[in-house]
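Page 42, continued from yesterday. The earlier attempt failed because a stray header line got pasted into the input along with the sequence. Redoing it now with the clean sequence only.
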Amino acid sequence: MKKRLVRICCSILLLFCAVRCGMDIFIRYAEYLDKGKIVPSFLLICGILAFGTVFSAVLIWKPDLFSPLAGVKSRIPLPRRAAAVMLCLVPGVLYNFIRFCEPYQGLWIRIFLCGTFVLLASWLWEAENELHFTGMTVCTLVFSAGFVLLTQFHDITNYPFSIGWSEGNRMWDYSVLFGKDLYDFPQDQTIPAYIDIGRQSLWGLIYLLPKVTIVMARVWNDILFTIPCALLGWALLRKDPSCKSSRLLAFSLWAMLFLMQGPIYTPLTLAAVLTALGSRTPLPVNCLLTAAAGFYAVMSRSTWIAAPSAFAVFLQFLDPKANNSAHERKARWGKAIALGLSGLIGAAVYMKREVFMGLFRSGAAETAGSAGAEAASAAMDAVPQIFTPEWFRYYLGRQALLFDRLWPNETYRPGIVLGLAAAVLPVLLLILIWSRRKEWGLDGWQKLLLFAGSGIFLAAGLIFSVKIGGGSNLHNLDMFLILVLITAALAWKAGFGNWLAARIRSDSLLCLLILAAILIPSWENMTKASPRRYPRSEITADAVDKIRTVINEHPGEDILFMDQRQLLTFGTVPKIPLIADYEKKWMMDEAMSNDAAYFEPYIRDLKARRFAAIITEPLHIKFQGEGGDFSEENDLFVTYVSLPTLCYYEPAETFDEQGVQILIPRDSVLDAEGVTCP
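This time it went through. Structure tokens are written below.
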């Protein structure tokens, strides 16, 4: 009876998905069908719809019809499973790289197409005729991990302009530490950049190589956002005797999927890796690695100061392998305290350095005479001592808090709360169900640490997420997400992993929750990925030529690259004296702080027509008001950057597709209705 009920439910779901897919297909092709045209892509998707529906129905009700194929499947296990893996990767390749798939962008077309390939792969994975959750779990994991990786790496191109709002200038940020010789800038001075030394030194490693290209930089960026996440999953379970190699690989892939929902900035991930590697070492080594993690984490963000300590304490205090004798409990307290202090000491060692506030302060000081650098240095000097009452007031009051971003909004459609719930609830529910059915064995102090520590990091992440400039994803909840992953790893060691395997082998309905935990991290990629479209090469070449012409026409004059600084990094345009001031991201941050004093030198330079040309993104004097996609940030940028710039400079060339504009001095100050120039 139970099996029949499951079949009926699956049939209803199949019928619903097939009907919705069919509706999407006819909506997409209505224009062609009205004209009596039948195009190849229409025939292909209709064929997939028909095949997927029939194949799924047979699997549900009459799997014995496939019995003639069972013998063939059992004789070729390796080719069969290799084919299953390849089928899992087909949707990711199709939606990320194949232009032919553009008519298949409808949500239900995507769902049905991806589901068909995963079901077919799952059937191939098993030697039997019927579907089992073992094969479905494996193939769903391969599909999700493959789709996310293909989406992450599909921006590898030699396209010279920035992909996204800040990509190009971030490449410049990363390059100035080890690639200073790429620029016409005094080599005995530090180039000020709006980046912390932790990320700059990591992403900047690629610039130690000779003749770095923009393709190499993009590959390195994609590696840093993916591989360390999987590495953390491996480090957490690498010495668990119950975790054989296949399970270790599966957990590592899932860890990557889970953390990329943030995404998580790599320095924090690597700090967590250090604490995980230390968790199975003698206490002195563990303390040393935790101190190194604390030192490295605070190099990147001061708000991460307690994160490595918390990670190490969780791994030690909640370790399920520890003996629960009275002596062991006392030793557990001592080890946890030692590790917590080690992480804080490591952070304190770095904080005592003169460059605690980042590379920016020292850079600004060494570039004396630069008005913009002096303004930046003054802004940095105004920051109170960290974790003092004044620092908390400064940090929380420096920029506006936009609490509406906790809920569905234009900047982040699900909102922070619902987005976070979707990201973590499946795995937390599984752990809760397991812990209630099979006691984890945590004592009162361990439970207090688990809930209090997670709650503190959750609250901090929510506050960081509602600061203006944030809230477009879950990356400010990075510490909380890593704690959830660590909790899952600790539960795995305590028997959660074996319990999951047993549920999968028994085809329990809980497997649907397991599949949700695997699929949800790839949902956004699966529903939004599309082949990246770049502007026509001749227009892109023309944009580059126009910038080169401006540079060649003004030898010895100041030309400001407010944006697109990667053109200087990779030698796309001639090497000119670098003006490090007035970088777009830095100006945006100061605009979000309403720091009018920071912009005073910039406005003086604009009035004096200091720059022969300014290379920027297309600027407009257009206020959006509240409630739009980053509308608050846009309006502040218009107030402090776009408006004063366009008052004294006018567009000579604008390339909207490339996101670049060349500004030249105006003969007279802008006189336009509703515009008051500074």
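Notes: The chain is about 65% helix and 5% strand.
Reminder to self: strip header lines before submitting.
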